């Protein structure tokens, strides 16, 4: 038996008045996903407990069967693994966004989805003039980057920029939670403020402003942590696996989980990602792996942008260009596979940030009779036979353990 998980990042939502109180999943045309629900068994899944932050890092750990209370160490350390950055035990890794600030407020969390080429120039510039012997910046993809401090305390509070668009930056500076953390926090906030003076001077931002684009005029730190200790999926379940994603977070989780990380040309993390390329990579990975985790970011980015039409389109592209292609491939090749589809968390278009709440799950095991659910969405799946899943119940159900 082979196993495939399709992860539609942030696709779950609340009823939207403009859609006649339907959710984007209910409004979208998604026959391939609905077919998985109709032929499989459905339920809801609490991917993030109320005492944990409702981000993709926590949610995807849970999806893969890990307990975030035991191994969650922040998003930065996960992305460090993806980028091949080796961490010492005393290092603190943090996510570093390039963001746009206007009139003292966060305008967007992505500097207008700055290109990777532009961003690399800016991050190297920041590393040279803002970093130092104790702080090192590593370029990632688009607005997503990494900063590593070689020592300090992690006992402080950060504010993820995508959750605070429109708010005053001075109200969102890093806050120490203990006296021990005050020197670390002072260093971090000083680097952020230095970037406000430095980044607008760079030619990349000057050209962006001339072109009518948002400048990347600030760095922004969040999700701090140290190197986690995690067993691989092979150690836990005796399976080999692969991860396919455009974003460093999922690639890093794949590294810690012992999965082979597969890069797909044209995979962007946005609506223009290479859906067909991801589908073909999934089918190829099934030739020598037991399990494939296919992650698509586009629906989450649309939720953050509060773009209802684009969120629906992202779901429909995932369905028609990726999932339908994979399902046809496994049927044509007569591959026996359990297939699951779910979001990692909710990213409501009305709010533009991640929120707590169960997500819909559909699991098609060809050896099991389906339940009565006919379509895939939040309400329909909640009535399914799987009920409300928690912890490692989802991955164990997928793997039949």
Topology:
Layout: E1 2-8, H1 24-27, H2 31-39, E2 41-46, H3 56-63, H4 68-71, H5 75-83, E3 92-102, E4 105-108, H6 116-129, E5 135-141, E6 144-149, E7 156-157, E8 175-176, H7 182-198, H8 203-210, E9 218-225, H9 233-237, E10 241-244, H10 248-256, E11 260-262, H11 275-285, E12 291-296, H12 298-304, H13 308-332, E13 337-342, E14 359-364, H14 378-382, E15 387-390, H15 393-399
Parallel strand pairs: 1-12, 1-13, 2-15, 10-11, 10-12
Antiparallel strand pairs: 2-14, 3-4, 3-6, 3-9, 5-6, 7-8, 13-14
Helix pairs in contact: 5-10, 11-13, 12-13
Describe the structure.
It contains 15 helices and 15 strands. The chain has helices spanning 24-27, 31-39, 56-63, 68-71, 75-83, 116-129, 182-198, 203-210, 233-237, 248-256, 275-285, 298-304, 308-332, 378-382, 393-399, and strands spanning 2-8, 41-46, 92-102, 105-108, 135-141, 144-149, 156-157, 175-176, 218-225, 241-244, 260-262, 291-296, 337-342, 359-364, 387-390. The strands form three sheets. The chain has an eight-stranded mixed sheet, with helices on both faces.
Task: From the structure above, extract its key features.
single chain, 401 residues, alpha/beta, Alkaline Phosphatase, subunit A, 8-stranded mixed β-sheet, 5-stranded antiparallel β-sheet, 15 helices, 15 strands, 20% strand, globular
Summarize this, please?
The protein has 401 residues and is an alpha/beta fold. It is built from 15 helices and 15 strands.
């Amino acid at each position: 038996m082979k196993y495939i998980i399709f992860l539609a990042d942030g696709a779950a939502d609340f009823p939207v008045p403009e859609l006649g109180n339907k959710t984007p999943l209910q409004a979208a045309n998604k026959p391939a996903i609905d077919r998985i629900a109709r032929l499989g068994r459905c339920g809801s899944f609490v991917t993030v407990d109320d005492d944990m932050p409702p981000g993709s890092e926590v949610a995807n750990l849970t999806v893969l069967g890990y307990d975030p209370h035991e191994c969650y160490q922040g998003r930065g350390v996960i992305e460090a693994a993806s980028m091949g950055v080796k961490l010492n035990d005393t290092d603190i890794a943090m996510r570093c966004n390039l963001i746009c600030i206007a009139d003292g407020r966060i305008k967007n969390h992505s500097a207008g989805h700055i290109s990777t080429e532009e961003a690399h120039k800016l991050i190297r510039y920041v590393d040279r003039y803002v970093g130092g012997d104790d702080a090192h910046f590593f370029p990632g993809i688009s607005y997503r980057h990494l900063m590593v401090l070689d020592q300090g305390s992690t006992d402080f509070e950060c504010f993820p920029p995508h959750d605070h668009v429109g708010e005053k930056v001075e109200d969102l500076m890093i806050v120490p939670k203990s006296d021990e953390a005050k020197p670390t926090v002072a260093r971090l906030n000083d680097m952020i403020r230095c970037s406000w003076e430095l980044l607008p001077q760079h030619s990349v931002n000057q050209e962006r402003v001339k072109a009518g684009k948002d400048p990347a005029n600030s760095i922004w730190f969040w999700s701090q942590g140290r190197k986690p200790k995690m067993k691989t999926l092979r150690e836990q379940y005796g399976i080999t696996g692969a991860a396919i994603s455009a974003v460093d977070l999922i690639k890093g989780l794949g590294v810690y989980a012992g999965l082979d990380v597969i890069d797909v040309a044209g995979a962007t993390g946005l609506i223009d990602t290479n859906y067909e390329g991801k589908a073909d990579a999934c089918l190829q990975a099934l030739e020598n792996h037991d399990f494939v985790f296919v992650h698509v970011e586009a629906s989450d980015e649309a939720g953050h942008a509060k773009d209802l039409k684009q969120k629906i389109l992202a779901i429909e592209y995932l369905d028609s260009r990726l999932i339908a292609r994979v399902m046809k491939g496994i049927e044509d090749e007569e591959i026996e596979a359990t297939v699951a589809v779910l979001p990692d968390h909710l990213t409501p278009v009305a709010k533009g940030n991640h929120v707590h709440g169960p997500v819909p799950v559909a699991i098609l095991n060809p050896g099991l009779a389906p339940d009565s659910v006919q379509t895939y969405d939040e309400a329909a799946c909640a009535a399914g036979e799987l009920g409300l899943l928690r912890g490692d119940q989802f991955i164990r159900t997928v793997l039949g353990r």
